[in-house]
From TrEMBL:
Protein keywords: DNA damage, DNA repair, Nucleus
Full protein name: Cell cycle checkpoint protein RAD1
GO cellular component, one term: checkpoint clamp complex
Family: Belongs to the rad1 family.
Chief location bin: nucleus
InterPro entries, alphabetized: Cell_cycle_checkpoint_Rad1 (IPR003011), DNA_clamp_sf (IPR046938), Rad1_Rec1_Rad17 (IPR003021)
Segments of skewed composition (Polar residues): 12-24
Pfam families the record matches: Rad1
Length: 331
């Protein structure tokens, strides 16, 4: 059944002068430092408005374009679920039960990040609306980057964005939606079928050459020949693209005990293209069930390493002839 929520909407207010905001100081309080790999920026409390309680979540970044460019890489559906934790934000977009994309925004990316409670915080919103708000200044050729502040008030009714660029302040308010539980693919990273790390530049070339008319893309990893292969099947024939383990494009090759092959819907792999184009390298992992994990390392404009991850479900063959035929063709 559909969740009860009000339609997502945003309100804007432009001002010709800089709006006054509370001064935020980043105090170095050793007693409040986290033992996590990515610790929470601590010291100053989140700013409050009048008599309202402090927001559940407050963050500030001095270059909104950094966040916008990362979030655009998983823009293939209208809604997104956001999880805020002491390690940062995880933004999730899903396609039915076949594909999940996650962007990880670590606390080190923000100049200020305050989570009022220690427990993870979940909320859902209109992703298209969020990106439209972020792109208002991100697409301009301004001499200085736009500063973004994000608030989630105590009632969780809406996400409030404040963007400032060259003396112009824009306030946006996007209503939230009651979040549903995101998919758990139960991906077992400790029991991988194979793992390959490939430089994105070479992998982009292969993605651009995949037959667009092929409904499926096969990923084949050979133990004997030590190679990673992507294949398409179209009216014009079969396309084969190999990455030998010894090639310069391959930085890591962990092969299975026996050669394996799984097929995936081409339409799902296309959703990864924006993240691939923005990345420096890609980690391709597969578990025993054929569930695929694609992790992309992206270096942001301000020098931070960020990660984007996709989980894909393998295509189930309709009959054994499809499997047998593909085995014959590989040789």
């Amino acid at each position: 059944s559909s969740p009860n929520y009000q339609p997502a909407m945003a309100t804007y207010r432009n001002q010709s002068s800089i709006r006054h905001t509370s001064t935020i100081n980043n105090a170095n309080d050793a007693d409040n430092e986290s033992d996590d790999e990515f610790s929470l920026n601590s010291g100053s409390p989140a700013p409050s408005d009048g008599g309202r309680p402090p927001p559940l979540l407050y963050l500030r970044i001095t270059n909104a374009k950094v966040v916008c460019s990362l979030l655009k890489t998983i823009q293939f559906r209208d809604l997104a679920t956001i999880c805020a934790s002491v390690n940062g934000l995880k933004v999730t977009v899903e396609d039915c039960k076949s594909l999940q994309a996650n962007v990880y925004l670590q606390t080190s990316l923000f100049s200020q990040y305050t989570l009022r409670d220690d427990e993870p915080l979940f909320f859902k919103l209109n992703y298209v609306m969020l990106l439209e708000c972020l792109q208002m200044f991100s697409d301009t050729e301004a001499s200085s980057p736009a500063v973004m502040e994000l608030f989630l008030p105590d009632d969780r009714s809406a996400v409030e964005l404040h963007l400032e660029d060259a003396g112009v302040v824009t306030d946006c308010r996007i209503r939230t939606i009651e979040p549903e539980q995101t998919l758990d693919f139960n991906f077992n990273a400790a029991a991988l079928c194979f793992k390959v790390i490939i430089r994105s530049e070479q992998l982009k070339e292969v993605f651009s050459e995949l037959d667009p008319h092929s409904e499926l893309v096969e990923i084949f990893v050979s133990t004997e020949r030590r190679l990673f292969r992507m294949s398409t099947f179209g009216d014009l024939g079969r396309g084969v693209y190999d990455f030998p383990a010894e090639s310069e494009a391959v930085e890591m090759f962990q092969s299975p005990d026996v050669s394996v092959a799984f097929r995936y819907r081409h339409a799902l792999l296309k959703c990864c293209l924006k993240a691939l184009q923005a990345s420096a390298k890609a980690s391709i992992r597969c578990d025993q069930r054929g569930f695929l994990s694609l992790q992309f390392l992206v270096e942001s404009a301000d020098g931070h390493n960020c990660f984007i991850e996709f989980f894909l479900v393998p295509n189930q063959p309709e009959d054994e002839d499809e499997i047998a035929g593909s085995d014959d063709e590989r040789h």
